[in-house]
Amino acid sequence: MYLFRAVNLASKVYQWKSSRNLLSLAIPVAYSLYIVISCSKSRQQHKKSPPKVAFSLPLFGHNLYMLFFSSRFLDWCTETYGELFDLNLMGKTVTIASGQCALEVLKADHRVLSTVEGTIIGKLPFAPYPNALTIVYADILHLDYIIDRTVLDMLHKEGAGMIRRTIVKSNMPELMERMIAGFDYGLGCFASDSVAAPIGDPIHFFRKLTTSMAAPCLFGREVGSDPVLLSSLPNFIVCLMKNTGCYYLAPRIFHRFLTPFLFNVQYYFQIGHSRLQPIIYRRRAKMAEATARRESHNLEMDILQRLLECVKSDGTQYNDEEITQSLMVLSFVAVHVTSSNMAMTFYWLLARPDLKKRLEMEIKEILGDGPITEEGLDKMEFLNSFLHETLRHSQDIVSNRKKALMDFNFINGYQILKGCVIETANRQLNMGLYAGASTAEKFSPSITKGHLLTRPTKKFVTFGVGKNVCPVMPAKFRIKSIHGGSPNKNSLDTVVTGL
Question: Domain-by-domain residue ranges, the chain?
């Protein structure tokens, strides 16, 4: 009997050990299967991701290639890896899109590929200025060092709509009148009608000239009559742009220590701030008086007025500080790119006297000695083609940085995941592969003949594509047209000779 119990117990112990061995064997087998499945999914995901460009240098990544021969490097990448590839720029992986993929990026909904999240927002753990938010955000220009995040968000959500409602075709005659008055005022300040005044910094000259034209249109006639404000806005932009290179080269953790030694953007910002505040107070006082009398205020519906009347989602309105900061940001948007393009326009006139002569002939034939009109500018086909070709050649190598707010699939099967940053090769999109540097011989307005600046196409992406066309584009185009098509007898010769 005892022998039977011993045998039975031994049998149970053996079964228990066998089941334990099976369990211990099943666990690593299951884990191995999990790893294999995960690796398989990872490989499938990796196949859909853009290829990474080789020859990334330690510490520098692909920065040196982009710094010294960016066009040829991007052309080689496109030819080797296709229309979509990843570069290591400033320690981060950035996807570059060209060709059809670039058009997809430009046309993408902002809720999927966000320009604000890609270009404007990036967390920093410190506040460089006392009035900045506790958690501040940085873009390439680092506007957030002086502009609150709430203002940037507001401009992203409301800015484009306000501009589209302000710059409409029915308002163009009145806006043209203000632009021409600003042009005459600026030209009278910086150039003489009889003797060509030498211009040391052409871009800054056109920056001042463009400011005197754009500010009265966007922010009201009061701004156009304030010379201190008109001079502070260009200086604000100059300091902002000069500091960008230093911020770009230095790691972000050193920005707070570097800022006191750079150009004082805050100084010119405060000048503009102090000159705009009284204008806002006067506008609010007129609105309050009209409300008390139960009458319409009859104020001009410019950008400033729309900001004053804009209502937040919570039912409140924007305060004076937020409105002032918004106007400073909008002044940069309206002036910077336009003035840079105008400097390029007159550079081509210097390089190609035959084009200058043809433009003068068209001005004489269509406008004569009469005033500039919208109808007259629309008839100037050569001026339109000339400006179009200027913009085509002045496009950045890469631009339109966006951040994926969700996974984005391209038509060629590639995919970028949520959180990835992508830029478009706009110059390559305009000029094609291996176009090389722009030269006077390559500049040909006849190439873009028939393409209107107000209708962006595949060959013209400066102002955006599809639904993402820049809302300030009509006003920018008119400013450029007035610069190039001024019928003043000596203005064109004066500016060109001064340059």
Answer: 147-394+425-498
